[in-house]
Design brief:
The structure is a homotetramer. Chain A is α/β, with parallel strands linked by helices. Chain A folds into two domains: about 120 residues, Rossmann fold (3-Layer(aba) Sandwich); about 180 residues, Dihydrodipicolinate Reductase, domain 2 (2-Layer Sandwich), CATH 3.30.360.10. The first copy, chain A, has ten helices and 15 strands. Chain A has a nine-stranded mixed sheet with strand order 14-13-12-11-7-10-9-8-15. In chain A, strand 2, helix 2 and strand 3 form a beta-alpha-beta unit. The C terminus of chain A is likely disordered. At the A-B interface, strand 7, strand 8, strand 9, strand 10 and strand 11 of A face strand 7, strand 8, strand 9, strand 10 and strand 11 of B.
């Protein structure tokens, strides 16, 4: 089978990582890279011996030889570039977040469907060994009924002028949440503030309500003194903590819980605690991007479902947008029914 | 000067700690202890050689020999007991939270004023060496302009049937916030859920908005797999982290921050990061309760102001009550103007 | 059955903990406590309602009513007090280390045997849930062949004028080693230094060689900036780490190891690594001293073997003495054959 | 000024890092790389656009155009390759340890002197920001009189057939010790064991005695369940801990110590403890290898002294060799006078 021919737009911070992972995949040939800053494109191209190096994405769209185009540019440019690529009939992988608005995200998903090509979204974290292990535990019943998701993603961050802390950091948490928990959230509430001369929010707290008392909360912060990347998924039987700052034992599964024994009289409900072993499962050492690239290649070949597809990208953008709306209205709840429904 | 004569109502979990600290103060004599379970009162009385041991608080109110009565009983009983003690003309110390409602709290504060006695509230954490150090840094300008307060107080907790996780844990965070930051919060938003058969909320997120973009957030949770007691106070110049679970170096001061350089064109605002040394200041080793007891004794003697007085107790209860109201209305913001105003 | 009548000599730092644990045991009655400082004896006696309180141990030896005498005094006095108690025909529990010399330790063990009473040594750590769990793993084969024992016990410590850091701290490590590993060590090597004006060693490294390549190492240090209490027991199948400074998950069992596949040509030996889950087993919450007291009571009743008996005390003192001798001769190895043999 | 022309022998694990750092230095041109496995040389050469790529080092020695030859091959080959390079009149940088024997190390140092070229040794750790900060604190008197050096470097390691754990890991610790403390150690003692079918020692404890009670200790271990890279330098005024596994705050300076007040009667010496703030100084973010390369370039230009020169390489190899000798004689002390003297 001939190799999958890939072109990458954008050789800034993240693009070279994608080029590297595509270049290492045995069934892929990276045919072209481009960047407005031609020097960057040349540097990346030389390292991975890419035949075509260009300053403009037109070089990629024009040539009909590509199977997959990767869009690794700033968020504001995703929509136009992805639309052009999809229109050219190639499969597309777009960095997170898929677009700057739900409307655009839906248009891309719709276009991909119409053209019969794949739209993948680079929600890298869902491909980490840690999150895959959490998914396994959530799916096989080990955690019991899911109770809550709590994520803290804070550090002294790069203030960005065009996007706020939610659009910068929360796509990670929300894509993980979407991947682990699925379902249809009902409402979102968010509070955010901008400090000093910052034109955009640098701290935000997002709460997402689900049916059946499941609750998700995300704390993103560009003004925190120490880096924290911690995620808890609590269930009735066990709870998992994923601490990405740890050099090892990133995932810990706690055999802890509370049992409620029912009684005719609700005030007589008995609560019993359970505290057993903690296990830090061995995680496979695969790089998340390599797993993601392999999934995309297999999906193009028709051998696997895309793990992070356009619909996931749409759902994540809808939630970000709704969080932004809640902030704008002072933290009041925003109903998600229509939004999530449209992505289902 | 004759010693301060103290009586303690309630010898359950916390009462004996208070008896011990009052008994060790050189200017205090613990004259009486009582508990509905007489055995508990006897055990505590024997250990600290307390002359009067009783099953009923009436023994304390009747005898006119006491200067200060300590109420260390379940929250629901605080109001009646404190009212009786204040009415008897003694100074009173009440466990946190002061009462179950803002109205009751205000009545007690009012009564103490009318009778010319002190009403102290046992917000123990504000007397810890860690929080006193944070107060010093917040007050002397070391932190610069205050930006945010973020507190996480979670563990596998004791589910209580009568009060929820907010009334159980958040009095700590809110009293620390009130002590460190002061000021008049404008709005409170809270979301909480009850899981399993639990009749009360076991997880809650509380957001408190202040003028000038200062933001406070509290996460309390009885269903967390590992104990976390972490509080961040972020300022424009430095940020402090207080991690109470650490055996040492509980307080860390980070010389980290962001500077915004203004420009005619707001989109040209320049952001520069600063990252200097981290210092874990040496903390004095005094037990918080001993510091609190000493402040109360000195306040009774007229030598110091009460650090945690009835007004502080009223403010904390008002915030708890408003948080509860926000939960009841699905997380929508509750204006605090009137509430905080009434306590000012 | 009548309660075991216990008397305790020494109400300093450790004595009251023993009084408390004996007093709480349902089959024990603490009949007498004494301390050269009568005030201390009175304070302890009042708290636990002990009938006889004295300044001199003679009060305990004279009265024939005691079944067990506990010696909780400075090491230099252990020998005379324990000898008097054993001679009086009572069972005896002595703090660690049993005595200041191997000769004295053997004399006590011999005397106990002759009088038909029990000699117990308070090697408290072997009764902790953590060490009991390690013993279980070492005994049931989970660890495979034992490879090494490495213990670090350092902090900014209390310099003592009469004993050095080895006699102060290493009894803990050596008694744990003796309990976990048993067997007959062959040689001991130790290096220690005294800094500043210190009259005794404040840092020491002790190495103990066993047959079959098992190696033990102990680092004790009174001049360390942070407290470390960490012990590793490494085996061919698994390795256990016991970190006593952690508030939870003190014991971690690592499913890690190396397999050597033999080959005719030794240079072709193949090494394969294994890295599986890490498990932090749930530990029971019993206080070590309570477990120890219960073992002693049951041993006196003839229902259990003493876990930490005179022979263990002798072995520990012999190793401490041999370590001291190695330090004196500049770190050269000291053969243990005769020493350990005499204790067997 | 023309760029320094550099050739690198060995493109295995470490070589490419050196090529990268030399290639990025503005005053360097990497002219040639070679590796017995030509594919590896080609890969490295392509990435950094190196003109000459070869399978044999002869290509580098023959061409007279090189100023500096880097030897990044297995230890056993260092001597021959470095000797050939020095004989060809080029400056030489050799990976650690310099050679497999002290005799060879001295011969290289002597040859470099005779030929008037530089012999540098890649003791990378002495160029880390952490160790440079420690050196500053040790030199400027902040630590007071130095008391001890304690290093733990353990993990589940790569068993090597040709060298043991001492020759693999301890060059790091010993080169740091030599850099920080200097001076002339008097004696070395080492114990090591080989477990399972391992043909070489996989655990070793090394103790190095200095005049004036300064003591150094190194624990290296290939069989440890968790990675530890911790180094303490204790002084009379302060103590520094360097924990290389931490993602941030790798260096902590503890204002802790003990003061001994002299007295006519030595038994009346008074000990007082001091415990002040802990400071984690901000470290510069420079990569150690970049700092090292810059030092070498400047040394070749005559603008700086070599930080890690042939004499340092000789001293480290002498200590490794002496440690090996002590292991061979069962842990007995080996006098270092002659060895260290010859390197002075």
């Amino acid at each position: 089978m001939p190799p999958l021919r890939v072109g990458v737009i954008g050789c800034g911070y993240w693009g070279p990582n994608l080029v590297r992972n595509f270049a290492r995949h045995p069934e892929v040939k990276v045919e072209a890279v481009c960047d407005r800053d031609l020097k960057r494109a040349e540097r990346t191209g030389a390292e991975y011996r890419v035949p075509t190096v260009a300053a403009s994405p037109d070089a990629l769209f024009g040539a009909k030889q590509l199977d997959l185009i990767v869009v690794a540019t700033p968020t504001a440019t995703h929509f136009e570039l992805a639309k052009a690529a999809l229109s050219a009939g190639t499969h597309v992988l777009v960095m997170k977040p898929l677009t700057s608005s739900g409307e655009q995200a839906e248009e891309l998903a719709h276009l991909a469907g119409k053209r019969g090509v794949l739209l993948a979204v680079d929600h890298t974290f869902v491909f980490t060994a840690a999150v895959r292990k959490m998914k396994e535990l959530a799916t096989n019943g080990a955690l019991g009924e899911l109770y809550y998701f709590d994520s803290v993603r804070v550090n002294l961050g790069l203030f960005q002028r065009d996007i706020n802390v939610i659009w910068d950091l929360a796509p990670h948490d929300i894509s993980i949440l979407d991947f682990l928990v699925g379902g249809e959230p009902e409402e979102i509430l968010a509070v955010g503030v901008a400090h000093g001369q910052s034109p955009t929010e640098n701290i935000a707290y997002i709460t997402i309500k689900y049916p059946n008392s499941f609750l998700a909360h995300v704390h993103v912060n560009w003004l925190a003194p120490a880096k924290v990347r911690q995620l808890i998924l609590g269930g009735s039987k066990k709870m998992v903590v994923y601490d990405d700052v740890q050099p090892s034992e990133k995932v810990k599964v706690y055999d802890k819980g509370v049992s409620f024994q029912n009684d005719a009289d609700p005030y007589k409900a008995l609560v019993s605690y359970r505290s057993g072993d903690m296990v830090a499962p061995q995680l496979d050492g695969k790089e998340a991007l390599a797993v993601e690239v392999d999934n995309i290649v297999k999906a193009v070949r028709g051998k696997e479902q895309l793990v992070s597809d356009g619909a996931a990208g749409v759902r994540v953008v809808h939630l970000l947008e709704a969080a932004q709306r809640s902030i704008a209205q002072g933290g009041s709840p925003v109903r998600l029914g229509a939004l999530a429904g449209s992505a289902a």
